[in-house]
Please model this.
Amino acid sequence: MKFNRDRNWLIKRAEQEDLHFISVGGLISRIDPEWQAEVSATPLVEATKAAFVRLLQLARRERRLTLEALADKADVDLAELVKVETDESFKPTPRTVHQLAAFLKLPAKKLMVLAGLLQVKDFGLQQASVRFAARSEPVEDLTPEEHAAFEEYVKFLNEQ
Amino acid sequence: MAAARALSQQPNQGLLIPRHFHWDWTRKEAELKLLAVKFYGLAYAGKLQGIMKVETVAHSCRLPEQQGKPLVYIDYIESAPWNIKKLMAALGQPQRFRAVGTRLFEAAVLQSQEEGFRGRLGLHSLPGSEGFYVNGCGMTPVGRDPHKQNLLWCEFTPEQAERYLARE
Model:
């Protein structure tokens, strides 16, 4: 194979690539676990995963969006979103979490931690996540308590 | 192959296929499929920086002017997370290596030329990547594929492949 050695060609292509996500996720951890572990520092507290799922569910319901509508608005794969909401052990792709963070106006880095894609030593975040997961229950409408818990947690995420 | 598979799935296939054939159709089919699949990995500094999987038999061209002709199908392509600028920017960290996806994509085009497919290439783009393939690479957005989660089928003609590879 004769690859193009023209530096200008490559720079131009790199600039185009930098504007997009070209990842098609799902295979990373099976091929090279190091890709996932690269940025890790401490063991993940499982409660943060539960908080991530609950946060998505409540954020979606508060906006009165179906899973399909959220997938459409956040520009993420519907099948992956369904797995995120129904399987707490499922690890979403970085792109999906990034897109969800952008749509929900939440800090992407925090959401990455909650989703289990990034591991950082943040005791405050872990404690807040445990409290949030414990206080919110998946029911049809948000109760005032759920709403308060949701608001408090979003405020916490945005303040840190 | 389809007929052989159907035959092997018959309840009494042991009676239908002579024993001296010594032929495991399922395994043969798997081997043939394996020959048509190729993985590319781009490694640097002792780490895998990107990976791509291509197939050469499962798909064919859909554009009217080249319908039915063979192509290289990109089934999977991905850069390591630390090479994705938007992701690393969101994490407040610098991107490590650029153009990883570009080099892998280029390898697929070159393989298509080497296989005699003249650069014909096809893929199902995820929503967030359509701009890269259509505007960035110059592929033709043929249409949504209802059999593949309504993803956008994009295709390269030989001329588009040449333009992509050309020095500018």
About this structure: Confidence is low (pLDDT under 50) at residues 25-31, 39-44 of chain A. Chain A touches chain B at residues 1-4, 6, 8-14, 16-25, 27-28, 31-32, 34-35, 38-39, 75-79, 94-95, 98-99, 101, 108-109, 112, 118 (CB under 8 Å). The domain at 28-159 of chain A is CATH 1.10.260.40 (434 Repressor (Amino-terminal Domain)).
